[in-house]
Design a protein that fits this description.
The chain is mostly helical. Helices cover 55% and strands 7% of the residues. β4, α9 (152-169) and β5 (178-179) form a beta-alpha-beta unit. The structure holds adenosine monophosphate.
């Protein structure tokens, strides 16, 4: 039997998962687990770059693990693990850092953005964030990485590190990872505040375990604009964002209906928002219902964690050993 391509992806442990995480990443994780050799992790080291309260971090890891499983991820089919349960990652990261240059790290959009937002805490972890992300991916020799549009620059850096390493040591050890876009276009879930993406640091999230009332309330508050007065007018950004959502979550004929009502100026934003909220809830409600029970089951969650770490340490341990040898770290 042919070896299945390896897929690697993760989500930072900074709180509950939101619709951006779901549509940009988690949905693909679940879709891919039958056809690929999938390894999915929870990035707790990465979340330390913003120095979270230690008493919250562990709960965040737990809730994401429960959300992964509630969304349909099957720990028997794929390797599900917590980043810090695989210390081999730290060694891979250290070795890779020797081929990552200050200039390229300082130039990344995410670093510049974070440095602006937290000027009193521009720590080395923020700067080397893309190297740790590259180590996560490259240590698995992953072929595909399902990520949202916001992470494409970091993935490009992982590819550069891989090529550079292979060139420097005249080896084919590193595998160049490629972005995986299940539905063609990379997804960018917008915020409902009129511009930008949905994200935890933007404070504009709809979480997959928000209850029905909260989801409806958040959609009702979404920024729109005046109703159009001219047929076939150009949409402004907040309205475009709502139509983007509608296309993603609703049936094509529903989308066409609303588009027609925009074009003939009969659109009612209240109906549009309710439609999106209802269709989002069809996806998130069953996940939320399964979540509580999984979250409460400490024994099961610890078992999943241990099983994932054991499997990953075995495969990754071999790759780290190979990397050490290539770089000249070996017994006499
Ligand atoms: P993060 O929460 O930043 O660790 O992101 C985890 C995953 O969710 C990554 O694959 C991101 O690309 C994806 N993601 C986060 N926010 C969004 C968004 N607004 N739209 C699409 N994907 C997103």
């Amino acid at each position: 039997m042919d070896k299945k391509p390896i897929v690697l992806s993760g989500i930072r442990a900074t709180g509950h998962l939101h619709l951006g995480n779901y549509y940009g990443a988690l949905r693909n994780f679940v879709d891919m687990q039958n056809d690929y050799d999938c390894r999915y992790f929870i990035a707790d080291y990465h979340s330390l770059t913003t120095q979270p309260d230690p008493s919250l971090l562990n709960g965040n890891v737990r809730s994401i693990l429960a959300e992964y499983i509630a969304a349909g991820m099957d720990p028997e089919k794929c390797m599900v693990y917590v980043q810090s349960d695989v210390p081999e990652t730290c060694e891979f990261f250290t070795l890779l850092n020797m081929h990552a240059y200050l200039g390229e790290l300082e130039k990344t959009v995410a670093f510049k953005d974070k440095a602006r937002k937290q000027p009193n805490n521009v720590n080395a972890g923020l700067l080397t964030y893309p190297v740790l992300m590259a180590a996560d991916i490259l240590q698995h020799k992953a072929n595909f990485v399902p990520v949202g549009k916001d992470q494409l620059q970091h993935l490009e850096m992982a590819r550069n590190f891989a090529v550079r390493f292979n060139h420097f040591y005249k080896t084919d050890f590193m595998v160049e990872p490629r972005a995986y876009e299940a539905k063609g276009e990379p997804i960018k879930i917008p915020g409902l505040d009129g511009s930008g993406k949905m994200g935890k640091s933007e404070g504009n999230c709809i979480y997959i375990n928000d209850d029905d009332k909260t989801v409806i309330k958040k959609f009702k508050k979404a920024v729109t604009d005046m109703t159009p007065t001219e047929p076939n007018s150009e949409m402004n950004e907040p309205v475009k964002n709502l139509f983007y959502f509608l296309k993603l979550v609703s049936a094509p004929e529903v989308y066409d209906q609303f588009l027609a009502s925009w074009n003939d100026c009969s659109i009612r934003y209240g109906d549009l928002k309710m439609q999106i909220a209802e269709d989002v809830l069809k996806v998130t409600r069953p996940i939320r219902e399964r979540y509580e029970e999984i979250y409460a089951d400490t024994e099961y969650l610890n078992k999943v964690r241990r099983m994932g770490a054991e499997k990953v340490r075995e495969v990754v341990g071999k790759n780290v050993e190979e990397m050490r040898q290539i770089m000249g770290i070996k017994m006499f």
